[in-house]
């Protein structure tokens, strides 16, 4: 089926940052066939059915937003440990999280994905690292939820094997053995990973963090990922407490530790990366290691201000992440566009730190690069996947901001009038088309209560 979108502003986020004040998009099947100024050509190829024509007056078309870091299961534990830094927050919540089961994870994943979809996300990555014994197929529950909601999904199969008795942060009953974690990760890759251009599902190898994973698991995870040709993901340089832990346990900072264990490279992306020296930034740039920037979560847990302007200037791939909703209760990525710009301007670069267009690039093409999909999505160009969002900007909240990109980034959250994933409508006129939002909310609330009562 061909879809024609006309009469809208367009921010392509291509290499030249091409924009049109009044342009068109032509979508055929799951690909973008054409993008340009003015109305679409009237003599489109006849595929046996008339094209769907959308008058998008008053809207801005952008690539779909790409979330590069999340923890879906945390939807069930929002609003807890409100005044804690990362380590205290984890210690407070690990006992509850260790009681999650398949039904809970499915409900939490549906809610997390639905919330992001309504806010313009077309592709999401989730880092799931808690696998209590005998609780079902937790990764499979997330994968099924992503299929139901209709978003492109990178499932980062996490792991923890360093419990408190061995000097780690998670309780012993919340960790796996190395062999169990690696076997389950390899099975997930063999069962689910689709490396194709139009893939809706990819698997990444994702041990949790330096303070919850042994060095052996870090090394062997990197070896597994590279043997299987998949990406690697973990948390890195998030807090001063983590940096202190690494120096005390390994005799070096997080970035040097990652280099020692094979965790720097173009196939790696790290969440947070707040506390980085000039040498750390240079190491990421030299190796092509990506960063998932999570400004709201960093603020919620008082982690600090990431050096995003310096990372970008050095050529480091940077995308945006919601992070788990126990540390970013809004659960939305489009608010991170605004927050990334505002938080960056609190740092040493001040008003020159980040522009509205750089913030949009972080949330689109930057995220695609971080997930290894820059050739497929993240910008509006012929031949790329038709992951497209129309933001309505002629309403009360935006109509007096003449620059549509500034309206989207600096204004209030813009309504999504249409969101396409591979050309398929997922959201229309602000309403999720693929699932019942009220049922999702009801089920998530019931599962949150069941989890709280079991703790």
TrEMBL record:
Q: Identify the InterPro entries for this entry.
A: Amidohydro-rel (IPR006680), Metal-dep_hydrolase_composite (IPR011059), Metal_Hydrolase (IPR032466), MTA/SAH_deaminase (IPR050287)
Q: Which Pfam families match?
A: Amidohydro_1 (PF01979)
Looking at the record, the residues that make up the Amidohydrolase-related domain are 61-400
State whether keyword 4Fe-4S applies: no
Gene3D superfamilies from the UniProt entry? Metal-dependent hydrolases (3.20.20.140), Urease, subunit C, domain 1 (2.30.40.10)
SUPFAM superfamilies xrefs: Composite domain of metallo-dependent hydrolases, Metallo-dependent hydrolases
Entry keywords, A to Z: Hydrolase
Output this protein's name.
Answer: 8-oxoguanine deaminase
Q: Recall the taxonomic lineage recorded for the source organism.
A: Bacteria, Bacillati, Actinomycetota, Actinomycetes, Kitasatosporales
